[in-house]
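Re: Re: ligand-bound prediction request (bumping)

Still looking for help on this. To restate: I need the protein modeled with magnesium ion bound, output as structure tokens. Inputs repeated here so nobody has to scroll up.
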Amino acid sequence: MDGNGRWAKQRGLPRSEGHKEGAKTFRRIGEYAGNIGIRHITFYAFSTENWSRPEAEIKAIMRLFGSYLQEALDRLEEDKEKGIRLRFLGDRTRIDKKLRDLMDTVEDATKDMAKVNLNIAVNYGGQQEILHAVQTIAADAQKGLLSPENLTLADVEKRLYTGDQPPVDLLIRPSGEQRLSNFLLWQCAYAEFWYSDVLWPDFTERDFDEALLAFRNRNRRFGGI
Ligand code: IPE
Ligand code: MG
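Reply:
Sorry for the wait, this slipped through. Here it is.
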């Protein structure tokens, strides 16, 4: 989700207003994805590099995240038919304890939802995710639980934050930027990329459809011919 700040700047508003509007877009697109049958979707909300932003902006983003989680909990009963399972990708240790507890509660409360897996990447970095997987592998090897020569790709995959979820088919990046920015590095090995100049707060269901149509016309060969 990119372009919140520029969206606000264009309107002479503080950046936090852009994040507020972006959070609305997130709700809209997340729900839409579930409605049209997307089984797995991940939103990049906050990267490990985003801590370098001014403290007030970080606080504003975390506050919005917290209200979304609280809302998800409050609406649990009425949202049941939407079937959204919420999960969070990233290193939680740096996240405020109250927010972390809320994340755990939401994950637990939605764990039996089966329609759509909605992941939110928070304090997420793809390189850090791989490093974390490597650390647990090294620790297991040290304990004699696995031997390096028998390691498989699956051994790495199951240690990623995405666990048993499938790799990325389509990566959508709004706001005119054309880079991966440390997002799901391992999982994007064969992802199709789709870029748009639309700023995230302005991103609509039609833009999402456009990305899906483009994806449908891609010829995916996965290294074959
Ligand atoms: C939202 O957009 C992404 C977050 C880190 C929350 P930005 O805040 O990066 O917006 P721009 O790129 O400054 O326009
Ligand atoms: Mg940005």
